[in-house]
């Protein structure tokens, strides 16, 4: 229940922030940065259609496709975000435009909107729109996700050439890059962990610290020094980012000469990360011993 409330809060706050960025930065500056929101700005310039209404009605057929092609679970996760985002666009429409400089609007609007979308993603939802289409194409075609995103959003930005001049479209591309960068940074930061490989003469003490204090599993590999030819052991452990300073300080205290390789692990799945820790003997986990 707490997880659902947290997700709902993230989606709501993220949609509100995204809508504020949309209305105060993008709309009056004609920044059509991809997605249904970008298409709504082009349609507003061409036909005078209300952006919030366009986004809401454009999501309806996409949600139908989501239900039948992506399944009920994905549909339920998406429907709230797809409804609340255009609602907030309508409610925040009276807010003033913060800048008429298109470059500033593209950069800062991209940061604001990207932050909002990132929160929605962290709430295990989306704002619907072309994200649904990208998911469908990714499921039923061999094309990679990154290429599909570039193709779909590229088409939306390309439509901007019909409504706007080339300078405005290039600002839209800058905004799209800004949004993508911020969202990727947020999603990587949310799941970012560290994978450590440790070679030390104090391996037993380090292993004990990892398993008892950090409560993490550790894997040992037999290794042979290429220069000395001596046999040793390599410890490998995956930890969260907040845990890294703790193990770094402990290793330095135990063995200043320890050889440590630290690698980013953007996504980690399994016990202690995406699943709850269970310390009883079971076939599906490596016990922290």
Strand residue content: 5-15%
Q: Describe the sheet with the most strands.
A: 4 strands, antiparallel
Low-confidence stretches: 284-289
Q: Give the N-terminus to C-terminus distance in angstroms.
A: 33 Å
Total strands? 4
Any idea what the shape is?
elongated
Oligomer: single chain
Instruction: Please give the radius of gyration in angstroms.
Output: 24 Å
Succession of helices and strands: HHHHHHHHEHEEHE
Q: Structural class of the helix and strand makeup? A: alpha+beta
Range of helix content: 55-70%
Strand order of the biggest β-sheet: 2-3-1-4
The helix count comes to 10
Q: Main traits of this protein?
A:
289 residues; alpha+beta
Helix-strand blueprint:
Blueprint: H1 2-26, H2 35-47, H3 51-70, H4 72-91, H5 102-122, H6 130-140, H7 145-163, H8 166-191, E1 193-199, H9 203-213, E2 219-224, E3 231-240, H10 244-254, E4 259-265
Antiparallel strand pairs: 1-3, 1-4, 2-3
Task: Outline the structure in words.
With 289 residues, this protein is an alpha+beta fold. The chain has helices spanning 2-26, 35-47, 51-70, 72-91, 102-122, 130-140, 145-163, 166-191, 203-213, 244-254, and strands at residues 193-199, 219-224, 231-240, 259-265. The protein has a 4-stranded antiparallel sheet, with helices on one face. Helix 1 (2-26) crosses helix 4 (72-91). The longest helix has 26 residues, at 166-191. It is elongated and about 75 Å long. The two termini are 33 Å apart.
